[in-house]
Amino acid sequence: LTVFYLIMGVGGLLGGVFNALIAPLVFTTIAEYPASLALACLLAPVWVRTMKETNESDDGPGWRRFDAFGVRAGDLAWPAGLAIAYAVLIWALGRVDIEVGPARLALTAGAPVLACYLLSPRPVRFALSVVVVLLIAGMDPAMRGVVLESHRSFFGAHRVTLVAGRDDAPPRHQLYHGTTLHGRQFVDESTGAPTRPDLPLAYYHRDGPAGSVLQSLQSTHESMNVGLVGLGVGNLAAYARDGDRFIYYEIDPIVEQLAEDERYFTYMSAARQRGATVETVLGDARLSLERRFRPEARGLDPDGVTSTDRPAAYDLLVLDAFSSDAIPVHLLTREAVGVYLDSVHDRGVLAFHISNRYLDLAPVLADLAGAHGLRCYVYDDTHVRPEVEAETGRTGSLWAVLVRDERHLPALDDRRHRVHWRHRRADPDRRVWTDAYSNVFSALREFSP
Fold first, then answer.
1. pLDDT tens-digit series, residues 228-276
2. Are 141 and 159 in contact (CB under 8 A)?
3. Where are the alpha helices (DSSP H) in 320-431?
4. Is the separation of the CB atoms in 193 and 187 below 8 Å?
5. 62 close to 52: Cβ distance less than 8 angstroms
6. Nearest-CA neighbor of 404 among 354, 337, 449?
7. Biggest alpha carbon distance in the chain?
8. Which alpha helices (H) appear in 193-305, and where do they start and end?
9. In whole angstroms, what is the distance from residue 225 CA to residue 347 CA?
10. SS3 186
11. Residue pLDDT, tens place only, 166-212
């Protein structure tokens, strides 16, 4: 048992060092995942049932380990055949134009996985088949488009893809972090250059919750000072007008590099051309906001700082860092909301983009609002039809706003929008998330079969 725990500990240490420190420098994708999966298949023991000769001391069949590490011609021929068949399948599905859905997924994922399982009794054959399936599946352009550029950093793998246009749907560039979409922009079909930088797409469409908040505040503000946590491709800069100031807080320099690359996205550069100020502050957003709006975080005496020394508070602070599989919990605590309130003026609005596959963060925000004497409203826009998304570039999303008073956000008082914004009350029996306590399991969505 001691040797077992020693091996587990050393293996975990070496694996962690490789994944966190070495792999980001060596790979531009999560290449270690398929490599380690194939290695596990290669090393997996195979046991076969055998019939033993019946005698007085042996009353039936038994099991023995099948030694199948010797490489035979079939161990190479079967994976090669699977690769050819899989590639032809993807090509054929592209020719008949079958859209992404359950039927296509059954063909492009279910059939190859079943083939791998049938080849599992021989480890070499099994491992090579798994490598083939993973590599070719990642090349299917129908899933997330053709990869134009990919980068790897400590914070994950980023890919810029091109999705071809079809029917009424124009082509578009998209940015993915892992499997999570972080923004898109339409592309001119003839030149391949990004176009319509005044049109926010994906979760930020003018007809969705983000558009409701931004356009509502712009109707009462001649110019706006906006802070935004999470850059993506700079979609929200499409709302920036002449005289507006948009300050992004982004932790990953690779994201800033891609958002500013005008070969793919032009939201930020176009906003500057319209006369808006658009900047990016690199680093952890909470620490950056503390240093900017709390004098003590900069080593200054709060009583000695005059109003002229204080930076202008935000009219709107957008928190858009919760759509990935792993959320930054330190941005969703009572102390964090206290920092946000120091960053906005008395009539300022906090807007949270909380779309997430696995977590329902609306109750968490409702409790945080109650802890600070705020009111929480949620806009559920997740039911966008696939044909609407393809044609308009709009993606379903879930947003929440925290305000001191409903009158501070005209959309909450507008009959056209009020039907969408629903008030969420805090649950007195639920524990508020703090820097010392959080419970992600309590926020897991309930999935029904």
1. 999 999 999 999 999 999 999 999 999 999 999 999 999 999 999 999 9
2. no
3. 334-343, 362-371, 386-392, 415-418
4. yes
5. yes
6. 337
7. 97
8. 209-218, 253-259, 267-273, 285-293
9. 12
10. strand
11. 767 788 999 998 788 899 999 998 898 999 999 999 999 999 999 99
